[in-house]
Amino acid sequence: METLRILHTNDLHSHFEHFPKIRRYLKQVQEMAAADQVLTFDAGDFMDRSHPLSDATEGRANIRLMNDFHYDAITIGNNEGISNPHAVLERLFDHANFPVLLSNLREEDESWPAWANDYKIIKTKKGTRLALVGLTAAYPMTYGPNHWQIKMLGETMDRVLPEIAGQYDCLILLTHVGLRMDQWLAKHYPEIDLIVGGHSHTLLEKGVKEGRTWITQTGKWGNYVGDISLEIGDDHKIISIKPTTVPVADLPSQAGDEAEIAALYEEGKKMLQSRQVADLPEKFKDDKLAAIDVSLEAIADFAGTDLAMLSTGLFLTPFKSGLINQFDLQHALPHPMHVVRTTLLGRDLWRLVMEVEKNRHFLEHYPLVGMGFRGKIFGQVYYRGIKYDPMTRNVFVNGQLLDPAEEYRIAVLDHYVLIPFFPTLAIVGENEFLFPQFLREVVGDYLGRKYPVKKEGEFIEERAERAEKRAENRGS
């Protein structure tokens, strides 16, 4: 008989505060487990650019830290595949010491990404053949604008399974597709023995079984580590799979953990602070509405529209006056969101405004989780170029009464298309997802053009002009 231990993580989202404990636990099991072999996997969304160090290094710091976890294979999540520009993902794994498995993502020309493996067949020390297949969430409307071809799960499995038929004794999937789709995979492809999953942030403390397939997931943020025991017979057939999870909070701390965690944050903070963005006038000091107004201008300018819509919950802090840097922007707008240019007929734009106004008071204090949102509450909605008269329920666009038959273009966020409160955007909107810049990058670029940072020579010239003006004033 053969015994295996499979350790796994998912949806770490750059929560480096758990990394010291996770690293020690993985190392201890990898080196001392009473098993014939230990394998370690990650199921994606390991990075999140809301952490300063992930943002400053475009995820390279995550790879540096994950190399110490000694993964045998990982797959990617939407935070790696969609939140990163194409070029960033292409070089993200340059220094990884683990393989990336991903069967359902291609380059635009149908070629395989240089950093990814379609699947992997490994043989254990006792000769059991394990087939490993990686799948990520199939989102065509966001992968496409980022210059990738994403393949549907069924299409991919129908291609891969015949290719690996007869080459394995045990089939393991690393998936970032969520529990519902994991259950779908298990139901439609019962030859799968084990799914190590992620994406839906579901904590399956003892796993769940769908047919003959075990599905495991450890919640989110590194709060738990998955630990699975497998027994395999001498004929290389699986006898039993026993999933469990280990609460990271219950693992012992060590001296130096807090210092390590703080140092990672400070490292990223200093890198971002060194990158100046703009020199804002006094009106921006602690004024969230000023930040919203200029951000509405920014996304409208980026999308080439007159109209725009943003919510106050996006702004975790207001901007400040004077010099602001990338850390200030990252702190204010940590969300991995992209601008969407939506085309609507006037009657549909009217309906969108009605949806906003109907939900306005509900959303003002609504606690929101997911869909790329890194804040606490949704907040109030503000428009650019749109006025609503609650007495008549009329909508005015740039001062003119809305024409039901005319086409209008409005800049919104992918977040608003995905959440359920404004169905008009998803149902009838002609949506163009604009990549690769994040919301904060779009805002930062606009601020930099409108309120540029003065170079040293400009400061000297400005001081001389002020001195000359003061002399003139004294003379008069």
Automatic annotation (TrEMBL):
It comes from the Bacteria. PROSITE patterns: 5_NUCLEOTIDASE_1 (PS00785). Residues 293-416 form the 5'-Nucleotidase C-terminal domain. InterPro entries: 5'-Nucleotdase_C, 5'-Nucleotdase_C_sf, 5'-Nucleotdase_CS, 5_nucleotidase/apyrase, Calcineurin-like_PHP, Metallo-depent_PP-like, Pesterase_YunD. The keyword Nucleotide-binding applies. GO terms for molecular function: 5'-nucleotidase activity; metal ion binding; nucleotide binding; UDP-sugar diphosphatase activity. Keywords: Hydrolase, Nucleotide-binding, Signal. Residues 4-202 form the Calcineurin-like phosphoesterase domain. One of its GO terms (cellular component) is outer membrane-bounded periplasmic space. GO terms for biological process: nucleotide catabolic process. The keyword Nucleotide-binding applies. Belongs to the 5'-nucleotidase family. This is Bifunctional metallophosphatase/5'-nucleotidase.
